Batch of 2 targets.
Target 1
Amino acid sequence: AQKITQTQPGMFVQEKEAVTLDCTYDTSDQSYGLFWYKQPSSGEMIFLIYQGSYDEQNATEGRYSLNFQKARKSANLVISASQLGDSAMYFCAMRTRDMRFGAGTRLTVKP
Amino acid sequence: EAGVVQSPRYKIIEKKQPVAFWCNPISGHNTLYWYLQNLGQGPELLIRYENEEAVDDSQLPKDRFSAERLKGVDSTLKIQPAELGDSAVYLCASSADRGLGNTIYFGEGSWLTVV
């Protein structure tokens, strides 16, 4: 069975600092995709970054990077130089046959 | 390119009434998903379509929920009769196909309140 775990219900970070949002997963599949989405208070789910299970290098997209540790089954999201607009819910997701989501982490960026 | 379009954006109904949500996926996307998101939680898959075929509906409460995607494009999700516990956001999403690396894109959601 697939399981996505986000252990941080809420996180705070000072503006311009970096923050790491944790995500661990469990699957018996060898091939899978890992995703992070951002959900502002308006409700839309915004795709941020993708990592394939066979990708050897960590994915990066602008200020977002994914710290992929396959042996530990973790896929943490790192946001560098936090901005006030980064305040939102962040969801980790894994795709095998379908896409399953974690419970999310609420990030608050302080000015 | 237009994103995933959902309607209505907001809906308030009395319990035991029916409600329907409509979704138009991104053009050319063969895979369509309906997710349920309760407040403060992650989305939970209700049903997945590959073209017009429902290939994963194990989480859909079939006693009151139904969905269709007749021509493999638009989709409708229906609840009849609605219960108080159905108050949630119903998210539609689509992807080019079910390839692992294909991003799933979401609509803005349909916010349902059952009173």
Note: Chain B touches chain A at residues 33, 40-45, 48, 56, 89, 91, 93, 98, 100-101, 103-109, 111 (CB under 8 Å).
Target 2
Amino acid sequence: DIVMTQTPLSSPVTLGQPASISCRSSQSLVHSDGNTYLSWLQQRPGQPPRLLIYKISNRFSGVPDRFSGSGAGTDFTLKISRVEAEDVGVYYCTQGTQFPHTFGQGTKLEIK
Amino acid sequence: QVQLQESGPGLVKPSGTLSLTCAVSGGSISSNNWWNWVRQPPGKGLEWIGQIYHSGSTNYNPSLKSRVTMSVDKSKNQFSLNLSSVTAADTAVYYCARAFGGSGHGDLDYWGQGTLVTVSS
């Protein structure tokens, strides 16, 4: 299985300041079809996961433009340009390039 | 917009079979997408269980493969999960989700609200 490792596991951030989460995969996530199936999920407290970013850097429908994704191969980053109160929750990177789909451990974003 | 809703018993006895259904609305289960199950033990992270296509093709997590069966009911626009020989370790919130596209590798773009299943006597 591909292991997804996120850092940090906890991120206290001041409102209005940026935040960044890193995700590293144990193998390249480039699929033979040329796509990289790396996405980011947000899970607010008591809610199901929600897709934020797909294929490294594409924002899903309705996702604010303060969220952005970047990276390639085995190293990926989710950035929030200015954290708002509604961004509190746990963020997961996930890969679908190779079965089984796997998830990072999650990064808890909290307000200082 | 696609919506998914899980349903099934909230309590299952040890050694029994966990059975859940996910109803799909706002889209057809026969569309070119794969239908997934993901679980989350209380206070822990996410684990992919497997997926099914409307044709009946499946991909399962090897860690659960011997105990998992998935099926599709096109007439009801829903799909189902059976997990046999359950133990307390199977206690979790179970989510259904859609993987976009026909390869099965697609991103999990729509999720149900989840249903808590507790394994206990």
Note: Chain A touches chain B at residues 1, 31, 33, 35, 37, 39, 41, 48-51, 54-55, 60, 92, 94, 96-97, 99-106 (CB under 8 Å).
